[in-house]
Amino acid sequence: MTGESFTPDEQARLAPYVTNTDRSIFALTNLPEVIKGALFSRYSRSTLGLRHLLLREFIEDEAAEFSAIQGSTANTDQDAALAVGRAQSFYDRILDGYGDDSIGELGGGHLAVEEVSILATKTLEDARIGGSPLEKSTRYVSFGQKVKGDYRFYKEPRLLASQHRERYLNTCRTLFETYVQLNEPVREYVRSRLPRDPDAPAAAYERSVRALSFDLIRGLLPAATLTNMGVFGNGRFFESLISRLRIEPLQEFQDLAQTAWEELAKVVPSFIRRAHPDHRHFQSYAAFTKAQRQQIQSVAAQLEQGSSELLSPPARTSGEVCLVEWDADAEIKLLAALLYEHTALPLQQVQEQVRQMPNAERKRIFRESIALREHRRHKPPRALERVFYTFDLLGDYGMYRDLHRHRMLTQWRQPLTTRFGYDTPPELEDAGLTQTYHAAMAQAKETFEAIAADFPNEAQYVVPMAYRIRWSMHVNLRALTWLVELRSTPQGHPGYRHIAQALFREVQRVQSRLAEWMKFVDLDGYTLGRLDAEVRQESKSCES
Length: 544
Prior knowledge:
Number of domains: 3
Distance between the termini: 38 Å
CATH architecture of the largest domain: 2-Layer Sandwich
Mean pLDDT: 87
Radius of gyration: 27 Å
Structural class: alpha+beta
Low-confidence stretches: 311-319
Largest sheet: 4 strands, antiparallel
C-alpha cells in the first residue's frame, strides 16, 4: 500500500503512465525517455511522490507540452515534433537545474547500428558503464552472402579514392571468397571426424556442425566485414560514446557519431545535446583529447624506436598470456574484506588481525567458503574485488573480440596489424585445407603493409581476424573468475578457451590458494570433441 491517495479523476489521468496508483512500488509506462529522465531528476528534490509530481509538474503544466508530446492533442507527427521542440527548453531547465551528469542515466534508448564494420564495433563496445551492446555472431550466422553483387565489407572512402583502391577491394574479396570456398569442405571434415550419434537430433547436429565450421573459418573475415549490432544505453552513455566517436581519425567512426546523434536526438535530445560538435562541452573535450593524444603519441614513437625487439612476439612461459602485476598482500586483503562486513571493526584493524592468523586458519576459511560454490553461477563474494591482476596478452583478433565483451575489467588494445602473425586452426591443417587459407593471409599482409605506409589507420580494415593483436587487461579476481569459468567451457572457441586457461594458470603460478576460487575452470583440451557439448545445447533448445 501507499501513503498517497488520488481522486478517481487523478487515477484516470495517471493510469496510462503508471502500473498502479495504490501501491508504493510501481513502474512507468508509455512515457518518452526525456519525460522519464526529467521526472526522476525533479523527483530527487521534491517532497512529492513520483505520481503526484507527474500530475502537477508534467501532465497539468502547460509549459511541459505534455499532452502534445503524448499525442493526445497533436494532429500529425509534425505537430508532435513541434511540441517537442517547444518543450525542449522546459526539460533542459529541469535536467540542468536538478542534477548533474548522472541525470543522463535516468533515461535511455535502444539504438540499432547496421552495416557497421567489425573494426568499428569494438569502439562502440569500449564504453561499458551504462550501455549494453549485442553484436551479430560469427558462429551462428554466415558472412558469405553478397548484396548487389559484392560481399558485405566497408568500402573505406579514403582508400577508394587512393592508389590502393583495387588492391584493397581485391584483397577483401579474396578473403571472403576463401571463406565461402572453405565452408562446405570444413563441414564435411567435421562430419567425418565426428559422425552423428543416432540418438542425437539431426537438426541439432547439423546446426552444431555449422556453428563449429564457422568458428574454424571466421579468421578469414577482414576487420572491414559489415555486421549489425543493437545497443541499449542511458543518455550519459550515448553522450560519451558519440563524443568519443567524433574525435576518432577514421571516417566511418565520425559518420557513425553523426548519424547516431541525429537518431537519438529524436528520442532523448536533452541527454545527448552536449555531444553536438558546436556545443562548448564537446569542443573542450575534443581539444583536450587531441592535445593529450598528440603528446602521448610523440613519446610512444620515441619508445618504439628504441625498442625494435618488441616488434616480434616475446617468448613467454604461458604462451600468449603474461601476468605483469599482482598484489603480494592479496590473500590478506581478500580475507579481511570477507570478514569486515560481519564485524564492527575498522578495516585496518581487521586486516591486521587477519595478518596475524595462522596460515592453516586462513587456508581453512578459504576452503570452506570456496566449497559452498556448487556451480559457476554461484558467484564469489564481493571481497574478491579487492584483488587485482594485470595481464599482457597476444591472441588473434577473433578471440579478442570474444573476450572484449566482458564489462567488469579495464582493457587497452593496440591497433590492428599483421606484424605478429596469424593463427591457423589445427583442424584446417588436419583436413588439408590450408593452401588457400595461407595464400589469403599472405595477400592480406602484403596489402596491409602497402596501405599502412600511406594510411596507417585505414589499413586496419584489411586485417583478417586470424591475425594477432596485443592487448592488456586489468581485472579483479571476482570478474576474472567469471571470465575464466565462462570462457573455458567445452563449447567455447578453442582460441579463447586457451586464453582463459592460461589466465587461470598464471594466477595459480603466483597465488595458488586464490586460484582455487576459480573452481569451475575447465582445463581439458578439446578440438572437435566440443561438438558433443554443442549438440547437447542445441538439443535442449529444440526441446524447449
